[in-house]
Write a structure and sequence with these properties.
It is a single chain. The chain has 265 residues and is an alpha/beta fold. The protein contains 10 helices and 5 strands; from the N terminus they run H-H-H-H-E-H-H-H-E-H-E-H-E-H-E. Helix 8 links the parallel strand 2 and strand 3 (203-207).
Amino acid sequence: MRDCSSLRTLAALLAFTAPALAQSTPPACPGITPSTKPRPTAQQIRSIAEADAADPTIILAHEPLENFGAIRYRIADYADCTGGGGCYWADLDAQYTRAQAALKLALESHKPAGRPALVLDIDETTLSSYCEMQKEDYGYVKPMFESWIVSPAASIPIPGTLRLYKQARAAGVAVFFITGRPDEQRTATATNLKTAGFDSWAGLSLRVAAQKTMSASEYKSQERQKILDAGYTIVMNVGDQWSDLDGTARAAINVKLPNPFYYLP
């Protein structure tokens, strides 16, 4: 871009915009019946701990870490938009609305030095793993997850991504997907992207050979450099992990999506 710093300032200003929300509820998960059993709230869990801590008959343990089960209750409430702790889907959609506004202004106010490109991550950025994570109780059961991710069930689109994708395509912006998935999952990944409504792209990158042992940041930097070397200017990069955005060959505007479910360095 001719003036990347001004675009980053624009993105920072848009972060304070309160957009109209298009999604505030989770998607339906086929074959999964939502539990009607109420989960204990964070306040209830704290109250129990405080009451027991005051009981002189209890010898207390040193517990420097928050209980993982209690954290999972909060994650489930946030993902299901229940319990008063916020709504993941509303926060996710709000960020995509900001991204759409930023892309529109960037394209209107700055002529890219090269062909404009949009880079999208896939998992929790383009396609949602919500239903499988719910089934696995927000843990990670590798055999279950790896079987699911190449199945037709793994084609749940994130609505905000689809809006941004269509906006970019209509504006003549090339779309590139860069995912940390291994190349062995390419066919299933491409099929699920098309099923979800992402019917074409300029590039789809999955890890091959030595990339499988790289950090996510190093691998994605390498793939973004290939896009720049092909004559594109990366106007925007969207991901749910910091490692989707960090490193070299960075975009003019980087959009960090919420993800309380997992962390990838």
